[in-house]
Amino acid sequence: MPTLSQPLLDVQHVSKSFGALKVTDDVSLTLRAGQALGIIGPNGAGKTTLFNLISGNLQPQPGGRIGFDGQDITASAPQARCAAGIGRTYQVPHPFGRMSVFENVLVGATFGTGRHERDANEVARQILQRTGLAHQADKLAGALPLLDRKRLELARALATEPRLLLLDEIAGGLTEHEVAELIEVIRSIRAEGVSIIWIEHIVHALMAVVDELVVLDFGRIVMRGEPAEVMASAEVQAIYMGLEVAA
Ligand SMILES: Nc1ncnc2c1ncn2[C@@H]1O[C@H](COP(=O)(O)OP(=O)(O)O)[C@@H](O)[C@H]1O
Ligand SMILES: [Mg+2]
After folding, report:
1. How far apart are CA 164 and CA 83, in angstroms?
2. Which parts of the chain sit beneath pLDDT 70?
3. Which residue's C-alpha comes closest to atom 12 of ligand 1?
4. How confident is the model at residue 247, as a pLDDT?
5. Does the Cβ of 18 fall within 6 Å of ligand 1?
6. What is the pLDDT of residue 246?
């Protein structure tokens, strides 16, 4: 049984290379139940790869360990991690394009949780309402505009009833107004006790939701702390200034 002091997510010394490229370099990261963490860092820093390691889409190199709710899940398949309560969205949405929006969410609500079909139908309907997709329920998922594809990513992740929700640039590419709407939905998810790790370049959106920020650069965590302090730090300024000079 997990104890109060035990983190919900416990990533220890995780590394991943693609060929000679060290993309995740000895990352250790813990998250308590109910906590919300933002991850920032330049493109190519290894943010999405870290999510892939947590969700089980990728395996870390030997020596790393990932714990969730007191269990060692380092070797668990993605489906098992999903069933254990780890839900995620993808930076590039990939819905089942030939299925309706409703059916896409129903898949998560049925297979992600082992619910009976009648319950799953009701859950899927509620989630579509909540994510602002109810009016698109019968549309083909492949025909949705960007905002609704992002909403569908979130809806599909929610349908699996996550205890930890991993959001990968869910607000990227949206208008200010759309981002504001999304922030409200994510805040409401958090208010229900779901733990969140949110990768995003839109810092003010992160600031509205998370308790702490983590900065990844070249596959390493260079900083973790209170969001305003992190953003004001010399390290972070240097990383982002370096990018402007390079651009
Ligand atoms: N499956 C893969 N095979 C080879 N290289 C990859 C793979 N996935 C990611 N990379 C490389 O790893 C680096 C980090 O990628 P990623 O984790 O997507 O960064 P971020 O999300 O921070 O932009 C990039 O240089 C990317 O090209
Ligand atoms: Mg990424």
Report:
1. 11
2. 1-4, 112, 242-247
3. 23
4. 42
5. yes
6. 46
Q: Is the CB of 3 under 6 A from ligand 1?
A: no
Q: What is the pLDDT of residue 198?
A: 98
Task: Report how far ligand 1's centroid is from the alpha carbon of 23 (Å).
Answer: 7
Give the largest CA-CA distance in the chain.
56
Position of tokens 């308590």? 32
What is the structure's pLDDT at 114?
A: 72
- Decide whether any atom of ligand 1 lies within 6 Å of the 16 Cβ: no
pLDDT for res 71: 97
Give percent helix, percent strand, percent coil of the chain, each to the nearest 5. Answer: 40, 25, 35
Ligand nearest, relative to CA of residue 19? 1
Using the structure block, give the residue that is written with the tokens 């933002």.
38
Residue 65's Cβ-side half-sphere holds a number of Cα atoms within 13 Å equal to 9
Residue 116: the pLDDT is: 79
φ, ψ for residue 36, nearest 5 deg: -125, 125
- Domains delineated in the chain: 28-85+165-247 (3.40.50.300), 95-161 (no CATH)
CA distance 45 to 14: 15
Contact 141 CB / ligand 1 (< 6 Å): no
